User: Fold Acetoin utilization protein AcuA from Ureibacillus chungkukjangi.
Amino acid sequence: MKHIKTFYSMEMETRHGQVIIEGPVPPEQLEKYTFHDDLVSFRPPLKQQKALVEIAKLDEGRIVIIRNGETVVGYVTYLYPDPLERWSEDQIENMIELGAIEVIPSYRSGGVAKKLLQLSFMDEAMENYLVITTEYYWHWDLKGTGLNVWDYRKMMERLMQSVDFVYFATDDPEITSHPANCLMARVGKRVNNDTMERFDRLRFKNRFMY
Assistant:
């Protein structure tokens, strides 16, 4: 499968001034930016920047960012599922994962995360993909937001639904380990039945085990 990427950019007014939302950002451009000190949800900012540069180098990898000037204050990643997860057991060429979304605390609640996702799907090529996302409560910033697990889950669902992600049931042990965890996916307009059947087989591994 040929992975076609078309760069998009938009400006947005926030309470911190004008920001630029853009992507997919090529790796050489991503290296030139500074990652904000508060981008610490997954790893320290410098290490996270290096990780995103490596994703951007992948054929299927896509990084969409929010930046204020030259400082990145938020991002979302798309790439093939982690080789250690069940979602990579059948290497479906047109199934990618929304791997991480992060916006620094001072820029949250202003609609920037929604714009980040909306710009991601402006690219018509995204209609070729089944895009999955796995939501685990232990990745959520419950302390920083003051939300409980269920309110955070509702917030994430609303965010994902804004770009046509829907809920899918699964027997994946990590997801079923807590009732707030969930699997969501966005089915592109050109995703065929074969892809969905293969996805169904990944979702349910134990349907015939009693």
